[in-house]
Amino acid sequence: MQVLKDRILTEGVVKGGNVLKVDSFLNHQMDITLFDAMGEELKRRFKDEKITKILTIEASGIGIACIVARHFGVPVVFAKKSESKNLDGDLYTSPVYSFTHQKEYMIRVSKKFITEEDRVLVIDDFLANGKALIGLFDILGQSGATVVGAGIAIEKGFQGGGDALREQGLRIESLAIVEEMGEGFIKFRD
C-alpha cells in the first residue's frame, strides 16, 4: 500500500534493536485518514470472507481494528494484557511474548465475545516475530471460531514471523513489508 509506505519513508525512524518508530501516524498519534485507507484496502483484500468479528490485542492495534471493523460492519474484540475487574466469567487465555516490551503477557478474551459461529479477522499494527498473532490464533483455536486470516499494517519481513505463519497455511495480508532497515534507509519487499 503505497500511501503507508510513503509515510513510513518520510516519518518513520529506525532505532537500534530493529525498532521502527512510527508514532507520529500509527501507534501514538493516529492518522485516521490513513487508517481509513488501510481499512478500505483490508476490506478489499478480505471482501469474500463473511467476517463476523475483528480481533486484536491491546493497545496499538485497537485504533486500526476499529476502522477496519467499520468497513466490515462488525464488532471489535480486543485481547487484554492484564487482569481486570471488568473481565468476568470464563476466559480464553494465551501467553504472548512482546518484542517491544521484552516481556511475556497473558492475554485474555471473554468467552462470551468469540464463539465457534464466528469468522474472525485478526488485525494488528506490527508483525515481527509473530508472537502476538500466535497468541491470538491460539485463543481463536480454543473458541472453535474460524480464522479468516490477519491484516497487518507493517510487517518486519526480516524477522521472519509472517513468513513462518504463511508456511503454516495462515493467510497474512500485510500492507507494508519492510525487508531491510538501518540508519537512514528502509527497503520494502515488492
Q: Largest beta sheet: what is the strand line-up?
A: 4-3-7-8-9-10
**Overall number of domains:** 1
Globular, elongated, flat, extended or rod-shaped: what is the shape?
globular
Number of helices: 5
The percent range for strand residues is: 25-35%
CA-to-CA gap between the ends? 10 Å
**Spans of at least 5 consecutive residues with low confidence:** none
| Total strand segments | 10
Per the CATH scheme, the topology name is Rossmann fold
Q: How many whole angstroms does the radius of gyration measure? A: 16 Å
Taking the sheet with the most strands, its summary is: 6 strands, mixed
Domain Phosphoribosyltransferase: 43-157
Catalytic activity: XMP + diphosphate = xanthine + 5-phospho-alpha-D-ribose 1-diphosphate
Binding site for 5-phospho-alpha-D-ribose 1-diphosphate: 128-132
Protein name: Xanthine phosphoribosyltransferase
Give an overview of the whole structure:
The protein contains five helices and ten strands; from the N terminus they run αββαβαββββαβαββ. With 190 residues, it is α/β, with parallel strands linked by helices. It has one domain: Rossmann fold. Helix 2 (32-45) packs across helix 3 (61-72). It is globular, with a radius of gyration of 16 Å.
Topology of this structure?
Blueprint: H1 2-11, E1 13-15, E2 19-21, H2 32-45, E3 53-57, H3 61-72, E4 76-79, E5 91-98, E6 103-110, E7 119-127, H4 131-143, E8 146-156, H5 161-167, E9 172-182, E10 185-188
Parallel strand pairs: 3-4, 3-7, 7-8, 8-9
Antiparallel strand pairs: 1-2, 5-6, 9-10
